[in-house]
């Protein structure tokens, strides 16, 4: 067996004026709960550190920049450093989503994988599938989704990586963090990160699992009342929330099963500024598609479970054995070739 105790750290409402350092204290509180439960890996949401600002049309660059982390190394960002220090002190690996402003001024919707045992960032991912629009709605009262305005599409692709030491009883320890085939299913776990809307795109899961990924991890900010943004029919708020939760669960369970990997999802949720609703539903899903654990609230909540990566072998070696059963000669249209 290859067991790991993992958790999604769901984060409830974060208002527009919330201070990052206060939000980070909430994240640390969740980390301490994780430590008490002997959790080894904690996944935080997308853009965890602030309110989900792409819902607002922000015209001042100075104002906009307050929602971003600047520079190359998030672990040294003064407001956020205490979280990484705590993760290191407790030897817990964390995935943290945040808005990244690079030194050359580009904005990305980013997440990092930080290893508690080494105190280093092992991998960085930048969101590929940016939803929403570049231009705001004409109606000033409308709730926007301006990710395409504030962020560039991620330019790192989907790079799977190893997390050394996470599986305590791994048969063979890897010597690098690169995902390689020689120890697949035996050594340190092979991981991948997605961010929110990416979870709805099977191509992203497939590129990771072609590299042997065993756990996909992602945070999300998913509006409960945003069917207009999808061009969908207008619905009563309760119906729209149910539909949003249904689709969120559906894509996570179906993609976990079809790609024979576990998945951990963490919501930023609740009612920001008392009026912008985001769904909860943070969960841990097994490689056969079953939900192991799921949030019961729309607030700060740790959703933890022990998982056994050996379970992935059923899908990876039988039902969805890529080497034996894929028919790549028929898939050219998917990549536009
Ligand atoms: N943050 C994010 O990617 N949210 C999207 C909703 C977009 S509304 C058009 C999601 O897929 O949940």
Summed up, what is this model?
Keywords: Hydrolase. This protein has eight helices and 15 strands.
CATH class: Alpha Beta
Main sheet specs: 7 strands, mixed
CATH topology (fold) name: Nitrilase/N-carbamoyl-D-aminoacid amidohydrolase
Spatial extent as radius of gyration: 19 Å
Mean pLDDT: 94
Overall number of domains: 1
Ends apart, CA distance between termini: 41 Å
- Any ligands, ions or cofactors bound here, and which? 4-methylsulfanyl-2-ureido-butyric acid
Look at the structure and name the CATH superfamily. Carbon-nitrogen hydrolase
Question: What do these coordinates show?
Answer:
Helix content is 23%, strand content 23%. The protein has eight helices and 15 strands. Strands 1, 2, 3, 4, 5, 6 and 15 form a seven-stranded mixed β-sheet that branches. It has a six-stranded mixed β-sheet with strand order 7-8-9-10-13-14, covered by helices on one side. Strands 11-12 form a two-stranded antiparallel sheet. Helix 6 (237-258) links the parallel strand 9 (215-220) and strand 10. Helix 1 runs parallel beside helix 3 (81-89). The radius of gyration is 19 Å and the shape is globular. The termini are far apart.
Question: Which terms summarize this structure?
Answer:
23% helix, Nitrilase/N-carbamoyl-D-aminoacid amidohydrolase, 7-stranded mixed sheet, 337 residues, binds 4-methylsulfanyl-2-ureido-butyric acid
Task: Explain the layout of strands and helices.
Elements: E1 3-10, H1 20-36, E2 41-43, H2 61-65, E3 69-70, H3 81-89, E4 93-101, E5 107-115, E6 120-126, H4 147-150, E7 161-162, E8 190-195, H5 202-209, E9 215-220, H6 237-258, E10 262-267, E11 270-272, E12 276-278, E13 283-285, E14 291-294, E15 301-308, H7 312-319, H8 322-325
Parallel strand pairs: 1-2, 2-4, 3-4, 8-9, 9-10
Antiparallel strand pairs: 1-15, 4-5, 5-6, 7-8, 10-13, 11-12, 13-14
Helix pairs in contact: 1-3
């Amino acid at each position: 067996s290859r067991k790991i105790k993992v958790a999604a750290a769901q984060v409830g409402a974060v208002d527009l004026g919330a201070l990052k350092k206060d939000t980070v204290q909430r994240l640390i509180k969740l980390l301490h709960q994780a430590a008490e439960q002997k959790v080894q890996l904690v996944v935080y949401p997308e853009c965890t550190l602030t309110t989900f600002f792409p819902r607002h049309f922000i015209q001042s660059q100075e104002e906009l920049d307050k929602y971003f982390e600047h520079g190359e190394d998030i672990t040294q960002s003064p407001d956020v450093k205490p979280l990484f220090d705590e993760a290191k002190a407790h030897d817990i690996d964390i995935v943290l989503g945040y808005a990244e402003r690079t030194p050359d001024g580009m904005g990305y919707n980013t997440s990092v994988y930080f290893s508690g045992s080494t105190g280093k960032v092992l991998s960085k991912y930048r969101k590929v599938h940016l939803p929403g629009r570049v231009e705001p709605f004409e109606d000033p009262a409308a709730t926007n989704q301006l990710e395409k305005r504030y962020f560039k599409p991620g330019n790192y692709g989907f790079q799977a990586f190893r997390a050394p030491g996470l599986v305590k009883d791994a048969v063979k320890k890897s010597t690098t963090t690169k995902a390689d085939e020689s120890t697949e299913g035996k050594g340190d776990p092979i991981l991948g990160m997605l961010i929110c809307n990416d979870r709805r795109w099977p191509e992203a899961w497939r590129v990771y699992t072609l590299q042997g990924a065993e756990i996909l991890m992602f945070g999300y900010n998913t509006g409960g009342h945003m069917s207009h943004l999808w061009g969908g029919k207008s619905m009563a708020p309760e119906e729209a929330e149910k539909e949003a939760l249904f689709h969120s669960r559906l894509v996570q369970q179906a993609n976990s099963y079809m790609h024979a990997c576990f998945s951990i999802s963490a919501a930023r949720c609740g009612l920001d500024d008392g009026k912008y609703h985001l769904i909860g539903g943070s969960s841990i899903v097994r490689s056969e598609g079953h939900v192991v654990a799921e949030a019961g609230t729309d607030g700060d909540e740790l959703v933890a479970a022990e998982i056994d990566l050996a379970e992935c072998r059923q899908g990876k070696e039988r039902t969805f054995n890529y080497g034996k059963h894929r028919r790549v000669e028929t898939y050219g249209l998917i990549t536009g070739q």
